[in-house]
Amino acid sequence: MITYDEFKEAIDNGFIKGDTVQIVRKNGKIHDYVLDGERVEPHETLSLEKV
């Protein structure tokens, strides 16, 4: 699971750009974010959310 600090660091370092991000959730909790072009496993559920 990703922490708030890790997520904020990704934004601050320019990995996440713009005002939306694709989020991977597991059991309803944010597990990771997906960068453009990054592979997503078939069992992962994605949602597009505002940053």
TrEMBL record:
Pfam family, one: Paratox
UniProt xrefs under InterPro entries: Paratox-like
Protein known as: Phage protein
